[in-house]
Amino acid sequence: MATPLSNDRYSRVAIALHWAIALMILSLIVFGFLMTQEWMPQRFTIYQWHKSFGITVLILSLFRLIWRLGHKPPPLSADMKKWELSAAKVTHVGFYVLMIGVPLLGWAMVSASRLPIENKLFFLIPLPDMPGVPSSDAMTDRLKLLHEIGAKLILFLFVLHVGGALKHHFVAKDGTLARMIPALRRK
Ligand code: HEM
Ligand code: HEM
């Protein structure tokens, strides 16, 4: 029988940022793979939205990390085994690294590109090139590969993370999911 959790939950800011960033990252991955297909219509427009939301994820994730350093999360269920606690920690740290690293790689990639494309966030704000990134095809290809690997790693962590969240909710029934979706607790 799982020990019931107290009414602990993440703060409103942490919850809002978690879901906004999760939604944007999943859309970025889906549209990222679609926009690189030859048959996809409106590819140029989707590329611009991709860069705009990608940089938004970068800014929100930096803010989230700073927020997180100043706000301790609620304690995890006392029933979690040592390996489960370690797995959750590794997944969370991995997410933070990728939430910041993947958009940085994307920005570096478009900065290295020799294509004469003006990057404008939301078709309004010019995106400057990342300082110190040399402009070359070889560098662009390398960064493209790293950006793609990073996005695939996010997908991998996502599967572990959601699997864990659902296991807590439906098998352990320990209230872990309600820490991120407080509405579940009232039911
Ligand atoms: C968390 C943020 C991001 C995620 C999850 C993400 C994900 C992806 C994915 C899955 C692809 C397709 C992979 C491929 O086939 O190459 C892709 C491609 C691309 N991304 Fe991102 N991206 C993010 C942020 C950014 C940012 C900030 C920029 C630029 C400012 C960017 C620029 C690009 C470009 C130019 C491509 C096309 C690469 C090619 O032509 O193959 N991305 N992204
Ligand atoms: C790409 C999408 C997602 C990303 C990047 C992500 C990232 C994260 C991160 C970094 C944390 C740790 C928060 C912290 O302590 O600072 C977290 C916690 C959490 N996430 Fe996600 N998440 C995603 C999607 C989801 C989904 C779809 C669910 C639900 C099915 C979910 C459920 C949770 C729960 C319940 C917690 C709290 C776990 C705990 O108390 O340790 N997440 N998420």
TrEMBL record:
Needed cofactors: heme b
One record GO biological process: respiratory electron transport chain
Work out whether the entry's keyword set contains Transport: yes
Q: Which GO terms describe its cellular component?
A: plasma membrane
- InterPro entries (UniProt xref): Cyt_b561_bac/Ni-Hgenase, Cytochrome_b561_oxidase, Di-haem_cyt_TM
The UniProt entry lists the main location of this chain as membrane
Which spans are transmembrane here? Answer: 12-34, 46-67, 87-110, 149-166
What membrane topology was assigned to this protein in its record?
A: Multi-pass membrane protein
Q: GO terms for molecular function, please?
A: electron transfer activity; heme binding; metal ion binding
Family, per entry: Belongs to the cytochrome b561 family.
Q: What is this protein called?
A: Cytochrome b561 bacterial/Ni-hydrogenase domain-containing protein
